[in-house]
Amino acid sequence: DLDGDGKVSGDEPTDTTDDFGGWTLTVDEDEVDPDSFDGPVIHVMAGTKCVDRSTGSSLRVPLKAAQGCGIVSLFSTLQLELFEEAQEASTTELEDATALAMANAAIAKGIGGAAAGLDICSFEPMEEVWDEDGDDDLAASYLKSTVEIGTVVTSLTEIVAGEKNQKAFGETATAVMEKVAEIQLKNADDASKAEG
Q1: Looking at residues 37-53, what average pLDDT do you find?
Q2: Is-contact 36 96, C-beta < 8 A?
Q3: Which helix (H) or strand (E) is 25 found in, with range?
Q4: Rounded distance, CA 59 to CA 16, Å?
Q5: Minimal CA–CA distance to 117: which of 105, 100, 125?
Q6: Count of alpha carbons within 13 angstroms of residue 52, beta-carbon side
Q7: Can you say whether the dihedral through the CA atoms of 110, 116, 118, 120 is positive or negative?
Q8: Please, are residues 91 and 38 in contact by the beta-carbon 8 Å criterion?
Q9: Interhelix angle for 166-195 vs 136-161, to 10°?
Q10: How far apart, in whole angstroms, are the C-alpha atoms of residue 40 and residue 164?
Q11: What predicted TM-score, i.e. pTM, was given to this entire model?
Q12: pLDDT tens digit string along 151-177?
């Protein structure tokens, strides 16, 4: 999403994942700022045509990730929502690095354990499990949190939007993720104040 409108426009790159979830997007250098987190966004549109081949289930919640993020997941979506929420909630203009640090701290607080410093854009929990030196507890916490977030977002979206249509469901799921980010950022901030 090069123009920030949340939609695929005719001149924006698109791709369909391969059998293993791999994808490639080619963007002109002048479209991205490698020193900024706030830029083009990668979107994965939910719907019956977007199927997780390992489970056979359709993706019900739209996902997104910041430019340069190699993994698009619920956590990359939450990270971007937290980043935006940190900037909106601040009474002064935050540097991207500060807003991103706040987003990552809120995610780490939610996952718990050794999640501090976790790179959401490259973390592969199954690689952790299979690697003899991997952190099984971190992988388990990450996967558990993914299921919890997915369940909360999907359940609340079903209550609010029902089964009207995929567009309404996706828009409602996005609003729910924004609210989850707002609450998580506040909880992480409150916890930091209590610790300090």
Answers
A1: 75
A2: yes
A3: none
A4: 14
A5: 105
A6: 11
A7: positive
A8: no
A9: 130
A10: 30
A11: 0.83
A12: 888 888 888 877 667 778 888 888 888
Which is nearest to 183 in space by CA: 91, 21, 175? 175
For 94-143, the pLDDT digits (tens) are 788 888 888 888 888 888 867 788 888 888 888 888 889 888 888 888 88
Q: How many CB atoms lie under 10 A from the CB of residue 196?
A: 5
In sequence order, the 6+-apart residues with CB closer than 8 A to the CB of 12 are 1, 2, 3
Q: What is the DSSP string of 145-181?
A: HHHHHHHHHHHHHHHHHTTS-HHHHHHHHHHHHHHHH
> Helices (DSSP H) in the chain: which residue ranges?
74-89, 96-111, 125-130, 136-161, 166-195
Question: In the structure encoding, which two tokens stand for residue 56, read together?
Answer: 């056979």
At 128 the pLDDT is 86
Altogether, the residues listed in the chain come to a count of 196
- 51-88, pLDDT tens digit by residue? 766 567 777 788 888 888 888 888 899 998 888 888 88
Residue whose entry in the numeric block shows the structure tokens 């489970």: 55
**How is residue 42 written in tokens?**
């990668």
What is the C-alpha to C-alpha distance for residues 176 and 156, in angstroms, rounded to an integer?
A: 7
| Token pair 């996902």 in the structure block, residue | 63
